[in-house]
Amino acid sequence: MNLYAVAAIYRFEMNRTFRTLWQSIVSPVVSTSLYFVVFGAVRAGGPSEIDGMPYGAFIVPGLIMLSLFTQSIFNASFAIFFPKFIGTIYELLSAPVSFVEVIMAYVGAAATKSVMLGLIILATAFVFAPHLAILHPLLMLVFLVLTSLSFSLFGFIIGVLSKNFEEIQFIPMLIVTPMTFLGGAFYSITKLPQPWQTISHFNPAVYLISGFRWTFFGKGDVPVIWSLAFIFGFFAVCLVIVSWIFKTGYKIKV
Amino acid sequence: MASIISVKGLTKTYDTGVEALKPVDLEVEKGEILALLGPNGAGKTTLIAIICGIVNPSGGKVTVDGYDIIDDYRKTRAMIGLVPQELATEAFETVWSVASFSRGLFGKAPNPAHIEKVLKSLSLWDKRKDKIMTLSGGMKRRVLIAKALSHEPRILFLDEPTAGVDVELRKDMWQVVRELRDDGVTIILTTHYIEEAEEMADRVAVINKGEIILIEDKDVLMRKLGRKQLVLHLQKPLKSIPAALKPWHLALSEDGLTLTFLFDPEGERAGAAPLLRKLDELKIAFDDISTSQKSLEDIFVGLVSDRT
Questions:
Q1: Distance CA A185, CA A61 (A)
Q2: Is the four-CA dihedral A27, A29, A33, A38 of positive or negative sign?
Q3: pLDDT tens by residue, B34-71
Q4: Which of the four CATH numbers 3.50.50.100, 2.70.70.10, 3.40.50.300, 3.90.1150.10 does domain B3-223 have?
Q5: Which of A8, A19, A94 sits opposite B104 (nearest CB)?
Q6: Per-residue pLDDT averaged across B145-170, rounded?
Q7: What does the alpha-carbon distance between residue A206 and residue A202 come to, in Å, rounded to a whole number?
Q8: Across the strands, what pairs with B29?
Q9: For residue A202, what are the domain limits?
């Protein structure tokens, strides 16, 4: 195991975060705060509670998840796409590192950023929803870390497969974000009329958001065990894809 | 001498169908400077990229210090430093941080003293805190060399290291390369500047259309192919070459005013003096005389165009 390499890449990526602190941490916090203001505080009409939870508190887990999904993908995809784009990838390919080490470093750094981001948003949430309580804090952290890792891994794959900046944006902006909005980030899917309720069960985001919300309130749209199974399954699928990519050198080597 | 890189039957056909390397065999000797010459698209960069692990080979085998580049990639890659042809660098990082990054990436424990030594030898020490985007092209080239040397490689690949670099900087780099060779580093250099190969290399390999068409000690090559030419401008035209001059195999120009003599300084047709004495005997007068030697460039152009 070339741990010096893992440390070098990890440090390099974390430096990039701190160098671009404004973009990496501050802007997601600002935009999340805007969601709180728009959907939570100044919302006129509509239910003031969902499933017995104040609406302001209800949307917190969904908002954190939305940021985790998109930021993990952006961070990890950009981290590996950029060296391809500017050509510095040659060094990584010629270095005595295995794919396990490369992934540990890049995905680890992207996930670290996401976990930091999630915790900052959570802290921000307490400002807007002071009565927010977390019923299962340890499980909440497990979900936070696993989601960050899985989506960073997913982002890494997108970064490897993308040929240009549009392709990098495509999945987070046009697939993940709509899925999150329609996955019960701002409402409970149990309140949806049929057939939309059934259709929603095919949306992967539902399981993630529901599970995360369960760790806060002890209630979710689907049983929490399904949510855990889903996140582990997603992580495993991403691992398989990424190990295939590295074994064959697909889209990285010629 | 023992070989440090051994390439056997290496082939590469890209997905586009381009056959970049026909079976290539090459032995690089430990501690030598080998210049790899060839026109654009000859396969130089592909050959280097395969040995370094950037491109997957289609067939054949490469070993570095006895280790297979695929099965023992950690051992072989740790030994190799690569300075690529393209000026691919980070923009926002400092010189110091990218050099330290490369050292870690290649599995070496941090060693600020070594990084300092490398940066100083490349005149980058004053720039160590500068962001790379603020550097000139020549300085970026030095940064790439510093990155390659940061992990103390035993083999250094320089892929067109002095392309687009001014004369002074080129001389500096040659100095660095010589010092590395004195430290026992094996150096493989590709270049368009034949002058560079002539100046630096111990051996020269010529690659064209994916094949190594020649590999030879530079001095032997220069001797073997570097024949001298003696041109005599005569005062009065000759109708034909006199029989007495037959042994010299001279060439007479159409106007009969120029005699050309090709000779090999160490071969059997050695020396111009006997010819000049003979001309004097025959009372053939000339008003100008010039000699020239084929450079490596002429040899190279001759070799490559022979095959096309």
A1: 8
A2: positive
A3: 999 888 888 899 999 999 999 989 999 999 999 999 99
A4: 3.40.50.300
A5: A8
A6: 87
A7: 8
A8: B3
A9: 3-248
Chain B residue with minimal CA distance to A86? Answer: B88
Helix (H, G, I), strand (E, B) or coil at B35: strand
Tokens (6 digits) for A146: 């696993």
Question: What is the C-alpha separation between B234 and A81, in angstroms, rounded?
Answer: 69
Determine the Cα–Cα distance for residues B190 and B194; give it in Å rounded to an integer: 10
| Cα first-last separation, chain B | 33
Task: Copy the structure tokens of residue A165.
Answer: 């900046």
Query: ipTM of the predicted structure?
Result: 0.82
Residue-wise pLDDT tens digits, A76-86 = 999 989 888 88
Residues of chain A contacting residue B57, judged by C-beta atoms under 8 Å apart: none
End-to-end CA distance of chain A: 25
Question: DSSP string covering A175-216, please?
Answer: IIHHHHHTTTSSS-GGGSPTTHHHHHTT-HHHHHHHHHHHHH
Place of tokens 């804090």: A137
What is the Cα A84 distance to its own chain's centre?
A: 23
To the nearest whole Å, the CA of A80 is away from the closest chain B CA by 13
| Contact of B139 with B89, CB cutoff 8 Å | no
Count, residues in chain B? 308
